[in-house]
User: Fold this.
Amino acid sequence: MKHVIVIGAGLIGAAAAYSLGRSGCRVTMIDAAGAGGLASRASFGWLNASFHLDVPHFHLRHAAMQAHVALSQEVPDFHDWPGCLWFEETGPQAQSFAEGLAHLGYPTARIDASSIRARWPLLTGVDEAVFLPGEGAVETPGLAMALCQRSGAEVWFGPRVRALIERGGRIIGVETGEGRVQADAVVLCAGVGTPELIAGLGLRLPMLPRPGAMVVTRPTARITDTLLCGPMGEMRQTREGRILLPTSPGHQGDSAEALTQTPGDLARAALDRVRLFFPGLALEVEQILTAARPVPADGLPVLSNPLPGLIVAVMHSGATLAPLAGQAVADLVTNGHCDPVWDRHSLDRFQK
Ligand SMILES: Cc1cc2nc3c(=O)[nH]c(=O)nc-3n(C[C@H](O)[C@H](O)[C@H](O)COP(=O)(O)OP(=O)(O)OC[C@H]3O[C@@H](n4cnc5c(N)ncnc54)[C@H](O)[C@@H]3O)c2cc1C
Assistant:
């Protein structure tokens, strides 16, 4: 039986541990912060392929959505599939957005003003939209903790991994503040902590600075039963009635705003944007979750096996990609290769 160390108990590490456990490996998970991750704890959890950088990226995300559907059968209670009402743009731009997705085989429907009034009666000023019925949301830290538990992994929460131990060109274990652990393979799912750990091996992983903040309101009467994505940004309402608002009107692009504003400023601005579409809506902020998003410099995931005994898996949009990434990690550890959909995501691209 192979013994594998997974560094990081966020959703990517948890998904990797889960798939490794199912592949018959003995897993030890190490996380300095504990279960649930850092970015994973602050995540909006939107499961989608509509936000994509290019066609292969679309297919990766779409395959990951299907993997989530399968995972939700095995690990219930954390997924919802209500679909997303998209009204970021109108007219020809909305048409080309919808046609582009439909062309890729993504379920898409144009919705007119009367249908919008009927299903989203409190939403104001939206006369046309695109509905994406296959999209959903995941309660990210909850799923991460459930996957850790079901992986059968031995967990070691608290110690920080200081270095990876290399012998003869192979990674054979890790060094923590509380001692060394040896294993047949080490899987590095440390999010934004990854570049520092691989730098000691002479490997580079440049990342984009992408601080994120998630506004969580107190539970309120239901205003939407679907995800919404419009000029006010993305929002959704949890089963308990809380509204979740990433604090940027653009996808994954809140670095400049987040760097110059306090979390309180960000929350006020986010609520003001929501009130443009839900006039008079009284919302009370319950908490603001902040975390750095792990985004490799070209925006695409990293998932590869750069050295014998070492797998690296770092990515945004990790809430969406996690189950597919977890399976790929397990395949790399047990078979030495994984689904070709990951071929272009090697860490090698940053070593030139
Ligand atoms: C505000 C926000 C909104 C988002 N919205 C979405 C979305 O809607 N859809 C989507 O798909 N994705 C979204 N994402 C991205 C997604 O949440 C992340 O890609 C994903 O959570 C990354 O998971 P991870 O396990 O790699 O990282 P993390 O959750 O950050 O976990 C990494 C873990 O590694 C541990 N660690 C790091 N270094 C060490 C070390 N040296 N020793 C021991 N432990 C270490 C940390 O303690 C941490 O627990 C969002 C992210 C943010 C912040």
Summary: The chain has two domains: 3-43+141-207+297-350, 81-134+209-292. The chain has a mean pLDDT of 95. The domain at 3-43+141-207+297-350 is CATH 3.50.50.60 (FAD/NAD(P)-binding domain).
